[in-house]
């Protein structure tokens, strides 16, 4: 309909007659500046950015997956985590470059919509929102398992309920978390930083002891079992499953509009958090499989790490890891709910979702509708109790976004529009984004069929929503 | 007119906070840096708040700007949506080279102004604020110092005389300057007690170790108990002040 604006800003309107909000005039180290001397303060520093990335990721990789992964891949599960880490790094680098060129809320959705157009943007954006919803549900089921284990430790059994107790607890926490996000005014970001530091301290101590133990320092050296005990293909399918442990770095990009000194802090926070968690994951799996053997480890399910700690350090170790597991899964779920709400805002800002979806309530100053659009579907998904499907669909939707982020980088570097001026340019262009795109897409092929079907259906639904609701909206930057 | 001091006037723009009576007149000879800010919880993206509230906030800013301009001040205006008010105030204070921040309160007749002097550090900025703001009024300036342990009355008198000289250099009438020294008292309590007879207060920022000034303890405590406006003179910006701030 309308001609593209001279400055290349977003144009068009959706079914409800809403147009995308105006773009900022400039971005400084400390603010995003709009017309009429209106500024948005950037308040998240490097530590805060790392805490978002690490805090989101570490809950899944260490406290939920080790048992499940060991069952599928044996000791080679460590390799699965390493593969996941390499793929995450291949994507984190291009994401960093794009984020320094476009440090705006919405992260991957923003990059893809501005470089490849609204249809891709809608698929990625709605996929990001729902991907985060699936991820949150997955973390909350994990949290439920940890609470059940804590209760078991103090002698309370919840057996005999009509629903599995961990599902019930997951649902309770989903409601509590959404409620807290709407009505809470406490300083959650600082809390997140503290939680991450405490977690890393506990894990470092525990893993150091575990590695020394496995090497035979404290007595009998454990006999290593065959590395590829389940064969080699499961290493890849397991990598696809556990990739959920690497979704957090993209959530740093989701709050890119609030990061101070974005050109420095965004790449450091994204790449840094991926490297840190990869190291922790690989060492954790090594310690876990050498103390128990993959098969017994698998038998312990989602809270396998508690048994590993009990074996290594006795009761106090088990309690410590239980405590850490609670913190980790809670912080993962919390960060994901907030990111999902940010994604809804980004879509609503661009008229791909109704403007009312990002309304702020006057009492608490919080986006209650966007938070509800995260919390509501999470409840339904937690109730399914399908840990692996939840994890894989979350990964699927993120991997689609990751592949498109890599493509977006290739597109922008080739077209080289005037507005594209990243402060951080990745080394190894074009090999890294090409490998990143291929690896992201390739990993999807190793997932369960059910996960692929659900993921593809969500993508198709997203595209249809765009065609129906916002076909006239043009978001692509002037190129 | 050449040396208008820049005074930061922070207003929580969407919470009904307004400019109290007399304040525009008080700042008539200054360059007012009008900072309208809105603090949002971390769950909310600042851009989200802008989308919803910008129109209302801008209309309000227009009114306030006119208020100061009609009184004779020059005005710089900034509207900021932030998660961290302290960070925003610090940044704006430094970006706009503000000599002081005003914690606004109603002023009627401006007859007596209390100027609390901590020490020689920053005394030049203090002099510029006092001279720049109050030169055009007939008010009496009482320079006030609470002597610390081991500090003689003579030392204190030298300190206050030094400030008085600077004010006279800047065109202040000597007859309008008084000095007052107290000792053996907690400085904060002493200042609060002393303010009873005054219409406005000028004081320095707290110790550099306390990163807070407007919401930080001393100025805030005083502002709560003193009913008149308080000018908090800011320190010289330290090197690298923009390094990662309170959010970390």
From TrEMBL, chain A:
Chief site of localization: membrane
Transmembrane segment boundaries: 44-65, 77-99, 120-143, 163-182, 194-212, 232-256, 268-288, 318-341, 362-383, 389-412, 424-446, 452-470
UniProt keyword annotations, A-Z: Membrane, Transmembrane, Transmembrane helix
One biological process term in Gene Ontology: transmembrane transport
Region (Disordered): 1-30
Any Gene Ontology CC annotation: membrane
Biased composition annotated in UniProt, kind: Acidic residues: 20-30
Transmembrane is among the record's keywords: yes
Start and end residues of each Amino acid permease/ SLC12A domain: 50-465
Subcellular location per the Swiss-Prot or TrEMBL entry: Membrane
Membrane topology: Multi-pass membrane protein
Top-rank lineage group of the source organism: Archaea
Annotated protein name in UniProt: Amino acid permease
């Amino acid at each position: 309909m309308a001609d593209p604006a001279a400055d290349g800003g977003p144009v068009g309107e959706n079914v409800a007659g809403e147009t995308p909000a105006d773009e900022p005039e400039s971005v400084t180290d400390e603010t995003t500046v709009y017309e009429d001397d209106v500024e948005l303060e950037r308040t998240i520093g490097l530590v805060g950015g790392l805490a978002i990335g690490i805090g989101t990721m570490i809950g899944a990789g260490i406290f939920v997956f080790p048992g499940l992964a060991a069952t599928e891949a044996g000791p080679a599960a460590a390799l699965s985590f390493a593969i996941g880490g390499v793929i995450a790094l291949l994507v984190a680098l291009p994401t960093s470059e794009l984020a320094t060129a476009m440090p705006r809320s919405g992260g991957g959705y923003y990059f893809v919509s501005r470089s490849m157009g609204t249809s891709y943007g809608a698929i990625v954006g709605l996929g990001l929102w729902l991907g985060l919803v699936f991820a949150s549900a997955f973390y909350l089921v994990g949290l439920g398992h940890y609470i059940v284990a804590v209760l078991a430790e103090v002698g309370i059994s919840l057996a005999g309920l009509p629903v599995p107790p961990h599902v019930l607890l997951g649902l309770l926490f989903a409601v509590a978390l959404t409620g807290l996000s709407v009505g809470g005014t406490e300083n959650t970001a600082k809390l997140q930083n503290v939680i991450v530091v405490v977690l890393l301290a506990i894990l470092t101590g525990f893993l150091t002891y575990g590695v020394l133990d496995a090497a035979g320092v404290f007595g009998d050296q454990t006999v290593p079992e065959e590395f590829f005990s389940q064969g080699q293909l499961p290493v890849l399918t397991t990598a696809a499953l556990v990739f959920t442990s690497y979704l957090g770095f993209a959530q740093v990009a989701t709050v890119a509009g609030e990061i101070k000194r974005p050109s420095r802090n965004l790449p450091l926070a994204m790449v840094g958090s991926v490297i840190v968690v990869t190291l922790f994951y690989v060492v954790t799996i090594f310690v876990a499989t050498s103390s128990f053997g993959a098969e017994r480890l698998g038998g312990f399910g989602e809270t396998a790490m508690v048994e590993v700690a009990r074996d290594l350090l006795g009761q106090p170790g088990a309690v410590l890891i239980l405590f850490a597991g609670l913190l980790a899964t809670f912080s993962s779920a919390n960060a994901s709910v907030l990111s999902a709400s940010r994604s809804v805002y980004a879509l609503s800002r661009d008229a791909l979702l109704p403007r009312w979806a990002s309304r702020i309530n006057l009492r608490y100053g919080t986006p209650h509708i966007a938070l509800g659009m995260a919390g509501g579907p999470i409840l339904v998904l937690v109730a399914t109790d399908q840990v692996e499907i939840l994890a894989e669909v979350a990964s699927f939707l993120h991997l689609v976004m990751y592949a498109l982020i890599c493509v977006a980088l290739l597109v922008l570097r080739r077209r080289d529009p005037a507005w594209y001026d990243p402060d951080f340019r990745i080394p190894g262009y074009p090999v890294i984004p090409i490998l990143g795109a291929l690896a992201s897409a390739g990993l999807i092929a190793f997932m369960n069929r059910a996960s692929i079907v659900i993921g593809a259906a969500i993508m198709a639904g997203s595209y249809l929503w765009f065609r129906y609701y916002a076909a006239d909206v043009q978001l692509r930057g002037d190129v | 007119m050449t040396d208008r001091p820049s005074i930061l006037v922070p207003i929580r723009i969407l919470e009904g906070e307004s400019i109290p009576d007399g304040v525009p007149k008080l700042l008539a000879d200054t360059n007012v840096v009008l900072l309208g800010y809105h603090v949002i919880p971390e769950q909310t993206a600042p851009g989200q708040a802008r989308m919803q509230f910008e129109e209302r906030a801008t209309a309000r800013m227009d009114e306030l700007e006119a208020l100061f301009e009609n009184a004779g001040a020059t005005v710089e205006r900034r509207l900021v949506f932030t998660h961290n008010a302290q960070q925003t105030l610090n940044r704006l204070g430094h970006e706009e080279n503000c000599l002081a921040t005003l914690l606004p309160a109603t002023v009627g007749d401006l007859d007596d102004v209390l100027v609390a002097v901590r020490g020689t550090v920053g005394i030049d900025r203090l002099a510029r604020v006092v001279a720049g703001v109050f030169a055009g009024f007939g008010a009496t300036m009482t320079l006030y110092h609470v002597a610390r342990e081991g500090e003689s009355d003579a030392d204190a008198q030298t300190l206050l005389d030094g400030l008085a000289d600077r004010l006279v250099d800047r065109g202040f009438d000597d007859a309008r300057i008084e000095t007052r020294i107290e000792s053996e008292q907690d400085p904060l309590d002493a200042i609060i007690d002393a303010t009873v007879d005054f219409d406005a207060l000028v004081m320095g920022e707290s110790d550099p170790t306390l990163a807070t000034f407007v919401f930080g303890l001393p100025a805030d405590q005083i502002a709560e108990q003193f009913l008149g406006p308080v000018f908090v003179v800011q320190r010289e910006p330290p090197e690298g002040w923009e390094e990662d701030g309170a959010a970390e």
